[in-house]
Amino acid sequence: MPADLIQRPFMSQHALAASRDEDFVAAMLAFELALADTQEAEGAIPAGTAERMREQLEGHAFDMSAIAAGIARGGNAAIPFVKAGRAALSDDLKRYWHLGATSQDVVDSALMVLLTPRLASLDALLLRCRRAALPLMQAHERTPMVGRTLMQQALPITFGVKVAHWALGLEQARRRLAALARPGLPVQFGGAVGVHSGLDEPGREGLGLSVMDGLAERLGLSAPVLPWHTDRQPIHALATAFDAVAGAAEKLALDVALMTQTELGEVSEPAGEGMGESSSMPHKRNPVRSAMIRGACRQIHGHTSVILNATAQPLERGLGEWHAEWGPLVDSALLLEGALEQAAVLLEGLEVHGEAMRRNLAVTGGAIMAEPVARLLTPRLGPDAAKGLAAEAAEQARRQGGAYADALEALLVSRHGELAAEFERADLEAASDPALYLGSSVAQVARAIAWLEC
């Protein structure tokens, strides 16, 4: 697969550089050495064993191609890795290597070690998005624009409240992810069938659990209640948290992409040398950052479905379900980090075209204000006549290119001369002014800012 051309451009290059095969092997080695440290502290192996293992293995050059080839025979990377590690140790240490562990302990814990710094990077990017969104919300809390439902013009809102929804979505997802990262991702240690077989000693039936707890502390992970070999709730929670962030990022990108359309022109993505260029049309400035975000997020949604379908795993070890999680989980983290890198730049440099927003509010000749106009007229004309007159005035304003208030006043005089005097010109202008019909937009921005800053 031409990964550098097709897959990796959607991923964070920084995250990719920290998630190589060598990094996963280093994470597996960290697990095994921390296990020896913990067992030594518990008196389960002789003093000095862990340090000697560390001396012999930390500088050892593991053969990545041999480990990769061994996966086809054993079904996971831990089996050839453990064999290679044992072969590199002196004979007197071999018996203490991987003691009481199983391949799932190594793989699951190594994945948690590998993903822990990715969670920190994701949190930092989401905080960067929040910092970029706050001044946008404040600057445009009263900037009127078209609110659209079912892709059609509906009623006015402000651009500030639109940004507030983007920011709230991202921040809610950030807090969900942070709730998993704060205590640490869970270590995995249960042995062959999840009950620490071989570590029991008379009077120390809880030794396996003590080793699990100490192992978690040494690796900077959390200690689960029990080993979770086929209880995949930790993976389910992590994958769906990734997907929640992806959904919020994709919402931002989708809205921006729609608003950049030539006919709308309400925002533009940040400019840059060659950014958004077309291979054949020199005039185009494509919303490429939005495309990259959406492309990454769509892949994450697919990966999430794989993980969700692998949640129920048989008996004490998954048969294919466990194996199916690895790639989608890691790829989701790398894709999400790439999407958020783009989202942060997008929010930091987004160009807002208020004049285009005003133009689009008037594109229907004021029909977007037909609802408040009808409400003004209803007490005197009744609902049906008021609605008809409001719509007819909007159509006349659109065809003639005039002001909605002028068309409305003219129709009132010609159709309802006896009532026209009851409507002040100022009232007609206010009822047809989008900037005066923004509902709770401004208050919503203030409320959102208060929540984001708490």
Word description of this protein:
There is one protein chain. With 454 residues, this protein is mainly α. The protein has two domains: 3-358, Fumarase/aspartase (Central domain) (Fumarase C, Chain A, domain 2, Up-down Bundle), CATH 1.20.200.10; 367-431, Orthogonal Bundle (Ribonucleotide Reductase Protein R1, domain 1), CATH 1.10.40. The chain contains 20 helices and four strands. The protein has helices at residues 3-6, 13-17, 21-41, 49-57, 64-74, 78-88, 91-94, 103-139, 159-181, 207-219, 233-259, 288-308, 321-349, 354-361, 370-381, 383-400, 404-415, 417-420, 425-431, 441-453; strands spanning 144-149, 152-158, 267-268, 351-352. Strands 1-2 form a two-stranded antiparallel sheet. Strands 3-4 form a two-stranded antiparallel sheet. The protein is elongated, with a radius of gyration of 31 Å. The mean pLDDT is 94.
DSSP strand (E) fraction?
Answer: under 5%
CATH architectural group of the largest domain: Up-down Bundle
Q: Please, what is the CATH homologous superfamily of the largest domain? A: Fumarase/aspartase (Central domain)
Write down the Rg: 31 Å
Q: Which structural class do you get from the secondary structure elements?
A: mainly alpha
The number of helical segments is: 20
Q: Class of the largest domain in CATH? A: Mainly Alpha
Question: Regions with pLDDT < 50 over 5+ consecutive residues?
Answer: none
SSE run: HHHHHHHHEEHHHEHHEHHHHHHH
For this structure, the quaternary state is single chain
Intertermini distance: 46 Å
Helix % is 55-70%
Overall mean pLDDT: 94
**Domains (count):** 2
